[in-house]
Amino acid sequence: MSVAFRRDSDEEHREPEFELPIPVGPNLVTERGLALIGEKMAALKAAVAAESDEASTKKLRRELRYWSTQAATAQIAPPPAPGEAGLGSLVTVRREGREHQFRIVGHDEADPAAKLLAFTAPLARAVMGAMAGDLVDFGGKAESLEVVAVA
Asked: Where is this region: Disordered (predicted)?
């Protein structure tokens, strides 16, 4: 007998929708990052209230649960010591004669295209705790990265 004759609906054959993955480890944020989480939650709550389509509402609520969890677990990172690279720092590095500048931020604030790197990104991890003038290991090479400035 064909499956078409045995089932009442297609619901039982749909892929399950899992919750959005929460990054592992502490949810460290900058003050700006915490404000962005709040803005995102407010926008999603408004979108849920305005949405009439059940499938769209379900997706919005899923996303709202993610941001609610991020807001509940957010910890504003303590400021790094003066001149030391840490969460919130603007870091300038030199590698192979070229300078690159980026800011170290929390997971939800990260946007590599805007030069905002999560504190768990390999480049950010390499410079965490370093100061201007330090040489750090990166990309499997010893002392391949020079920290030019930390603000």
From this structure: 1-23
Domain assignment present for 3:
no
The tens-digit pLDDT sequence of the chain (151 residues) is 555 555 555 556 666 778 888 888 889 999 999 999 999 999 999 999 999 999 899 999 999 999 999 999 999 999 999 999 999 999 999 999 999 999 999 999 999 999 999 999 999 999 999 999 999 999 899 999 999 999 9
Asked whether 33 and 110 are in contact (CB, 8 A), the reply is: no
Tell me the residue range of the domain where 124 lies. 90-150
Q: Torsion angle of alpha carbons 102, 108, 112, 114, nearest 10°?
A: -70
Q: What is the pTM of this model?
A: 0.82
Q: Domain count of the chain?
A: 2
For the chain, the straight-line distance linking the first and the last C-alpha, in angstroms and rounded, comes to: 71
Asked if residue 99 and residue 59 are part of one domain, the reply reads: no
